[in-house]
Design goal:
The complex is a heterotrimer of chains A (277), B (220) and C (271). Chain A has 277 residues and is of the alpha/beta class. Chain A contains eleven helices and six strands. Classes of the chains: A alpha/beta (277), B mainly alpha (220), C mainly alpha (271). Chains in contact: A-B, A-C, B-C.
């Protein structure tokens, strides 16, 4: 086997080791690279800034432990921004794991920024994802009735910041943080009939589909995976996990491109040798 | 005495540290599959499924059934017992003889979702159809806008032509747009591949960061 | 019955549990017996009628114009009650998955098949996690229960779930290296688009073309701008076309399901 043919057959464990090294190195020795803000992230940021006084935002959580690395920094950046700008918000989880992740996250950030549960933010708890469509159908006409109770089982009618939040017109923004195609239902049953502003925070794998509603004006902005969270952190003048991870993203992508190129060099050269012989 | 034995559980620093070590060993156990199939990986995998299922059961009771069902019954709304009757119908799926009873409840729930399809279709697509009628030229449009709109129209029509299987692609009028559509789909597939790679790398970076920062304290 | 007439609010929880069980047996039994009276050849029709009536709720609510002031029609108030009910009914369906898991792992454990200790680990993890959660609920002011629950959640569910998904990253590198070959012009175009998007989406892409101007004609060739253009123009247009097809297909499927026209192994089996 020639050198070029061997390039096509590098042992997979060597590729795994290389990947681990190129990811670990920028995490240990920080790799500072410019973070460029994309128009979609800028749109999401501006949408949060524009939440009208007297209305609340909803942060909808569909993610679980599997996509923590992408969705958690997005959720954290959005919650932190809303706290910083004194925008009241409610978290609604459609995944049992995401329910706890989002609650713990909000409690931590609220503690850092001195925000009070029930006055500055509220967690509406967990509702089964299978009931998403029926909930969205009943939600616009009676927000408190559709949700019922909060994370602690307290009726929403007894929570101070929920006074006056009765119908969909009292919701100023909905931020959907999800690893799947759930945005379509918010658009179908909330944005379509009622024009409530939406922003979308998907994992990167769902992002190409997200440009469709973005172009149609159905969402105001989009945070694409961990990179989108890093851009958002940059807008908030912070450097949290997503910003640190962006350096490792760069090196890992370079490795994948290098491996694909190496594999193709081996492929082309071995094909040439076969044709010559 | 039991309290003294487990008093360390009251210290969140100790339990936090134990949680991190548990998580680190669990992560490494899962990663051991990268070398080869082994019993440690299988054990970690089964433990995860069990823990996730147990957590799901607890959360379903604590966040849904207790506040939205049990508390209503104990508060006097006895008719909520009928929800248990409806929920119980699901379990006839395990009976060969009474399987059809489960189809009633499945049919009801499927029917509910299917009935919302009209509103869903209108809510999603009316804006997108409207947004698809982009002008080739209009006042205030620069060269970039004109080119972008031309690209959009060409890509939209050719990709739709590619997926239109009602008629055979025999004539040139059918084949040419369809083959252009196949070419421009490569942009979408390339974008999907690039985004998928970024997504998976992000998840891996998250775990590596946990191991290096939270566990080993060697990452900043 | 019991929960409506015989048990007073404030009674101990176990009495309510017994009452609910008795009511379930009475009402459930009555429904079961009523359903047994349905002739065999009418059962399919009954399922179809229930499906149709359920679907009628949302579709009629959508098509019937609402009051100009409130936007509501005669069904809008009923929709909320439907959502409340389905919330609870869907929650009961969780038991289906739990039962399947118990049956699978229980069988292996009972027969001591190879790897039975893994099945035992499943049950141990299930009950420990579940009981830790209930312990926390029953003793809300106890730091011990709260810390135990958090320790177990962070150490098992959170960590192992993230690890399971993250190993795909390794596989995707290996798969991309082995499978991505430029065998045709289309594959080359796809690879080029993938490279541009991969580089443009990460900071290294911006760094590579940092020398190009930030505004003007030159900025169009900055990697992050080229990547964004690919995503926002040809990719978006292609997805618009694909999505139209998917939405029309989904509407057709929904209509077939609603009208019970769908055929398949589940629907074709004799009732």
């Amino acid at each position: 086997m020639s050198v070029f043919e061997k390039l096509q057959h590098i042992d997979r464990r060597i590729t795994y080791l290389l990947l681990a090294v190129v990811i670990a190195a920028p995490l240990i020795w920080r790799l500072r690279l410019p973070i460029v803000i994309s128009p979609s992230v800028r749109g999401a940021y501006d949408a949060v800034e524009s939440i009208p006084e007297g209305k609340i935002a909803i942060v909808s959580i569909f993610w679980a432990s599997g996509t923590t690395a992408e969705n958690q920094p997005q959720t954290e950046a959005l919650i932190r921004h809303m706290f910083m700008r004194r925008k009241k918000f409610a978290i609604l989880a459609f995944d049992p794991q995401g329910n706890k992740f989002s609650y713990d996250l909000a409690v931590r950030i609220a503690g850092e920024l001195g925000k009070k549960y029930g006055t500055d933010w509220v967690h509406w708890g967990y509702r089964p994802g299978a009931n998403f469509i029926p909930l969205l159908q009943s939600f616009p006409h009676d927000v408190q009735g559709a949700i019922g109770t909060d994370y602690y089982g307290t009726p929403l009618t007894r929570i101070p910041m929920m006074r006056g939040i009765k119908k969909i017109r009292d919701i100023g923004l909905i931020a959907e943080v999800t690893p799947s195609r759930t945005l379509e239902y918010w658009i179908a049953f909330i944005y379509g009939p009622y024009r409530t502003p939406l922003i979308y925070a998907p994992t990167a794998v769902m992002a190409p589909e997200g440009f469709n509603p973005l172009d149609a004006g159905q969402i105001k902005g989009m945070l694409i995976g961990m990179k989108g969270a890093a851009e958002y952190e940059s807008l908030l003048d912070r450097q949290d996990f997503a910003t640190r991870g962006a350096g490792a993203l760069s090196t890992s992508h370079m490795l994948i491109i290098a491996l694909i190129v190496v594999g193709n060099i081996g492929y082309i050269s071995s094909r040439r040798r076969r044709l010559q012989s | 005495m039991v309290n003294e034995l487990f008093s360390w559980l009251s210290d969140s620093h100790i339990t936090g540290t134990i949680g991190i070590w548990l998580a680190a060993f669990g992560t490494l156990a899962i990663y051991s599959i990268l070398y080869k199939e082994n019993p440690v990986y299988r054990l970690a995998e089964h433990a995860f499924i069990g823990a996730a299922a147990g957590y799901g059961v607890y959360m379903t009771w604590a966040q849904i059934l207790k506040p939205l069902w049990w508390d209503k019954i104990t508060g006097g709304q006895w008719y909520w017992v009928l929800a248990l009757v409806a929920g119980g119908m699901f379990y006839f799926i395990y009976s060969q003889r009474y399987l059809w009873i489960s189809r009633i409840i499945f049919g009801a729930l499927l029917g509910l979702i299917a009935g919302s399809a009209f509103k869903g279709f209108a809510g999603v697509n009316i804006d997108r159809i409207h947004a698809s009628f982009k002008p080739i030229y209009g006042p205030g449009m620069g060269l970039g806008d004109v080119l972008n709109n031309v690209v959009f129209i060409v890509v939209l029509l050719t990709v739709m032509a590619y997926f239109f299987f009602s008629f055979e692609h025999r004539s040139a009028a059918r084949r040419v747009p369809s083959s252009i559509g196949r070419w421009v789909l490569m942009f979408a597939f390339g974008a999907i591949f690039g985004s998928t790679v970024m997504s998976r790398m992000s998840l891996l970076i998250g775990r590596m960061y946990f191991l290096l920062h939270n566990w080993l304290h060697i990452a900043s | 019955m019991f929960t409506g007439w015989l048990i007073r609010p404030g009674a101990p929880q176990w009495i309510w549990a017994v009452g609910v069980l008795c009511d379930f047996l009475i009402f459930g039994g009555a429904v079961f017996l009523l359903l047994q009276l349905v002739p065999v050849h009418y059962r399919k029709a009954l399922v179809a009628i229930v499906t149709f009536l359920a679907g009628l709720i949302y579709s009629v609510e959508f098509f019937v114009p609402g009051d100009p002031k409130t936007g509501k029609n005669f069904l809008t108030g009923f929709i909320e009650q439907v959502a409340d009910a389905t919330n609870v009914v869907y929650a009961f369906a969780l038991g289906l998955g739990v039962y399947s898991l118990f049956r699978f792992h229980g069988k292996n454990l009972a027969r001591k098949r190879q790897g039975w200790h893994n099945n035992l680990a499943f049950f141990v993890a299930f009950f420990v996690m579940m009981l830790a959660g209930f312990w926390q609920d029953l003793t809300p002011s106890s730091a011990m229960s709260k810390n135990t629950f958090n320790m177990l959640f962070d150490g098992t569910v959170a960590a192992l779930g993230a690890a399971m998904f993250s190993i795909v990253g390794f596989f995707i590198v290996s798969a991309a290296y082995r499978a991505f070959r430029i065998r045709s012009a289309e594959a080359t175009l796809m690879l080029a688009a993938a490279f541009v998007v991969m580089l443009g989406q990460v900071p290294i892409g911006a760094y590579i073309t940092n020398g190009l101007p930030a505004a003007g004609l030159g900025s169009l060739f900055r990697l992050e701008n080229v990547s964004y253009w690919i995503l926002n123009e040809p990719n978006m247009a292609a997805w618009r076309a694909i999505a139209f097809g998917i939405e029309v297909g989904a509407l057709a499927m929904a209509l077939r399901t609603w009208l019970s026209l769908e055929r398949g192994s589940f629907f074709e089996r004799e009732l």
